[in-house]
Amino acid sequence: MSDIKDEIEQEESGKKGMKDVFKAVEGIKCVVKKSSKFVEEFLSEPMCGRCLPCSLGSYEAMVRLKRITAGIGTEEDVHALQRIGVQMLFGSMCKKGKDTAKFLLESLNTEAYKEHLEKRCNERECLSLDIYTIITEKCTLCGLCSEACKYNAIMGEKKVSYLSGYLPFEIRQKRCVKCGDCVPACPYGAIEVTHEEIKAEAEVEVEA
Ligand code: SF4
Ligand code: SF4
Ligand code: SF4
Fold first, then answer.
1. Going by CATH, does the domain composed of 2-117 fall within 1.20.58?
2. What is the fold of 127-207?
3. Ligand 3 mean position to 11 CA, how many Å?
4. Rounded distance between C-alpha atoms, residue 162 and residue 177, angstroms
């Protein structure tokens, strides 16, 4: 009964309720990304902090889920998520905490986490797992990709026909934000997107 009262109060106050959280993840196909977004949305309103398994666990879960979608997750992250999910399920006082725990635990029953630990997102929604590279043999040094990249991530010098000794264009992985703008900008199909190995450096770390 207090849950219903809480939800009504929440709606009246204009704050996000669980309905909004579920809605925010509706279109996401990747289970891991969906869980990450779910927890992020859950945390996007100030946390009431009445129970520790929820208030601390949900934050840790978000950090670990982000590590996994960024392609730097480990088995330890998955085990921690399992532990957090169980603790939240039994230690949360309200339906919101329990719903979040159930969502997380259900996602952990899928193969998606294993795929992400192997640097694969089969739904191709975890963009950090994509790598953009230029195929040197196809590149004519026209420079159009470099002009299209808003993040100054493509290095190279446009070819002038009467000069020689140019180096091939190259994508700086640390700067690339995986926006994909360079692919249609290349008239020669010289930019490929692979989905195998993480070259970019990890940015998300779990706090000690
Ligand atoms: S489970 Fe509910 S009451 Fe407990 S901290 Fe989370 S949101 Fe607050
Ligand atoms: S994907 Fe985006 S950021 Fe990366 S190189 Fe291409 S245009 Fe630049
Ligand atoms: S647009 Fe294509 S061909 Fe032109 S420099 Fe970039 S990769 Fe090379």
1. no
2. Alpha-Beta Plaits (3.30.70)
3. 52
4. 34
